[in-house]
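Exam revision sheet. Question 4 asks you to relate a sequence to its structure. Input first:
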Amino acid sequence: MSRDRLFLWDFPTRLFHWMLVLCIASAFITGQIGGNMIVWHGRIGLVVVGLIAFRLVWGLVGSTYARFSQFFPTPARLTAYLKGQWHGHGHNPLGAFSVFGLLALIAFQVGSGLFANDDIAFNGPLRALVGKDFSDTLTGWHRQTSNLLMALVALHVGAIVFYARVKKDNLVTPMVTGWKDNVQGESARGGGWVAFAV
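Answer key, structure tokens:
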């Protein structure tokens, strides 16, 4: 059904997004402070593990625009977008690269953090499953990759600002309210409360 307003992002997708924003910011801050805050850094990492696991499942059973199949950047979609012929809703093909890149990098961060140590008092919950040398290697990767993650986050925010200022397309409001105004298209379906609860 065509309309001037469409329901774009379901509540679970929006909740995931803003919880992830809060957790990544908190993890970065606690990681930089170190000391006793590293315990909270580890706890926040465990929350992120849960969030990423949820998003992977929700990408299969969530509502229309939350599903990975809806925005996976195929060559045809990417070509259409670059030619200005893509007229979909939700993540555009270039934005999809950002989503998948962020999810993959965050998954690597929390995965490596599970085995990390700080050589003082903190060990990741799975540290005992690997030797000290491999734990140290993963710890090094975890620290180095955090800068790449912050760069991708900055790029993501920059793209949102670009869309707001240059293309006059507010991407933040739909991620808060779920609704996108002044567009025609079909509202998201599926991914209701039963799927969310399960």
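Marking note for examiners. Residues 9 and 178 are 4 Å apart (CA to CA).
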